[in-house]
Specification:
alpha/beta, Nucleotidyltransferase, domain 5, 5-stranded mixed β-sheet, 5 strands, globular
Length: about 170
Amino acid sequence: MSYIMVDIESDGPIPGDYSMICFGAVVVEQGLSRTFYGQLLPISEQWVPGALAVSGFSREETLAFRDPAEVMQDFATWLAGISKERLVFISDNNGFDWQFINWYFHHFTGKNPFGFSSTNLGSLYKGLVRDTFKNFKHLRKTKHTHHPVDDAKGNAEALLAMKEMGLGIRL
């Protein structure tokens, strides 16, 4: 099994009506050196200025990004080179990140290499420390910048720290 930490930035709350602007992925392993980054041309005329602002890009900049079908195929190819074993999608906010990645994979490539499930990093931590009010974010080393590779790396660092704390996980 290979855990892939993913973070996305979008210009709105849901895929299809709004667009995934960029995303990053990191293979969760020592060194965190295997990463993927994609910037995607918007698929919709709709966008929420405040949501887009989080990414740090202007609407004009996003209109020069790559075709989503090409980016998603490149991501699928990158993932296929990670492992022949099952790939596990994990993120800080999997309810948000997963919906975009899943929709984009199915829409642009016909299938999602992660299958039909995802894992929430925050929930793992809450279970590990047995307290639903605790937050894992203090375990990040890489600053949370809203660049998706930075954010995925920070979250992967937190997962590696949880393993050291006793989380039963095979990485």
